[in-house]
User: Fold FGGY carbohydrate kinase domain-containing protein from Aegilops tauschii subsp. strangulata.
Amino acid sequence: LVIRPGRPRPRDPREAHEEVIAAPRPRLRLLPIAAAGVMSRGGVFLGVDVGTGSARAGIFDEKGKLLGSASSPIQIWKEKDCIEQSSTDIWLAVCTAVKSACSLANVAAEDVAGLGFAATCSLVAVDADGSPVSVSWSADARRNIIVWMDHRAVDQADRINARNSPVLQYCGGGVSPEMQAPKLLWVKENLQESWSMACRWMDLSDWLAYRATGDDTRSLCTTVCKWTYLGHAHMGQWRELDSRDMEACGWDEVFWEEIGLGDLVEGNRAKIGRSVAFPGHALGSGLTPTSAKELGLLPGTPVGTSLIDAHAGGVGVMESVPEAESKADLSDEEAICRRMVLVCGTSTCHMAVSKNKLFIPGVWGPFWSAMIPEYWLTEGGQSATGALLDYIVENHAAAPLLANHAASQSVSIFELLNKILLSMAHEQNIPFLSALSQDTHVLPDFHGNRSPVADPKSKGVICGLTLDTSEKYLALLYLATIQGIAYGTRHIVEHCNAHGHKIDTLLACGGLAKNSLYIQEHADIIGCPIILPRENESVLLGASVLGAVAAKKFSGIHDAMKSMNAAGKVVHPSSDPRVKKYHDAKYKIFRSLYEQQLSHRSTMAQALQ
Assistant:
């Protein structure tokens, strides 16, 4: 269990499985509100975020101030391209984190006015009773989640994209193996018994809301972004203020039949979603008595329709603009469309909104109402950023020594690397720190390229390696990797602006946003100011916004954002023209690395014919 501030205490996941599996499993159903007047007593909002490695919970007031947060680790299984988790384990971790966050914030159950869930866009399989259905070669029933970053379905994605269905224009021209249709097709083709047992296929955040309320209404966020649901089918019919679940009329049944998954749209699409709702819509009758007891909250506490974690980060930060950075000549509607949010964690998602739909090759979207209701969302992304930095550092010969030095100084490995780079820049008397990497160039596609070339087969490249195994050389590799990631974001921003966006301001949140070097390199390379939020836990804040909207504290998501978002530090690009010249040159090399890879791929394919 982790209670912030403090250090993590490991939890044995086997104990978690035994504890939950031994308990009788409740049958999920809609129940009436059991605690009248809960809302009149409540005053704070709870956000829950299930990431790749942990479940976290945060308590916020109506101004978006964090009162307390806690986290609990979750188990993950990795075998080559197959990456799996357990919904049973995740729910236990959620309950642990929620109880601990409430305790830390000194918040009683009756004080919580509403809650919302955010999670990775992982795929959950359950049977008619809500019990887990295995999605693993191992047939282990605990392993009923295909994690978002799982790439087992690359072949299925290629075959789906070869059909050129009209729905694909709303996800950048093609589905990614990280989306749900390819993963579903993989299960049908490889795990027939599981396929026949599963009665519900759900995005993880939708499953969490279903587990809490018994209502399996799906979010426009998850269905539109990951399931090819055409959210704009509801344009002109419903507005966010209508606040109701809507019949799911945006499924393209022809598409599902063409790709071999027609059985999912039989029975009024019961397995993938009969009804959808705007994020923040109050689900069912709130928490069921069973889930309320498990979470330590009151039955009937309102629960908002969910968001994917990155999208919750967007909701938690996009209105965090200080007065000095606001543009007086633009309306609120125009100003928000000039911003892009970088949600920087294991991967990075790039979120921008517009009032008009913009089709951008290689970039997901346009998605209607997938993040901020009644706006179109453009979603770029890099599949490995924090994960890539961890990989570069942990697999270097100097990693154990570096970890010992960091521990002895009571700093993180990345803080120590930043200090080493500053020392190197001073020793070498170079004009600016970035120039240390002049001989080292990184293409960060170690887990494929999500945007803007949309090539899951792309590979990472490091140009400029030597036999040096020192901590200083590891620091150079770390710097060049950060720069490679930032050049990838510059490529995404330029590509979006070339296709109709007018992005000139970035906002950043997530774990990597706490790294000052990471943010400064991005500002210098992209040439935009980067605004950091007042609260570090932007994804949790975005999830709590859902609870605030469900509790009727605000009229809608955007209204709540304006009250609960707040700006912190603003990082400006360097004014030194030498820095811009340097990064422009390195950016050209960065772009050439992928072109060279394509050439190499073609040469070898011809040699093997």
Observations:
- Residues 1-41 have pLDDT under 50 and may be disordered.
- The first strand starts at residue 2 and ends at 3.
- The chain is about 40% helix and 20% strand.
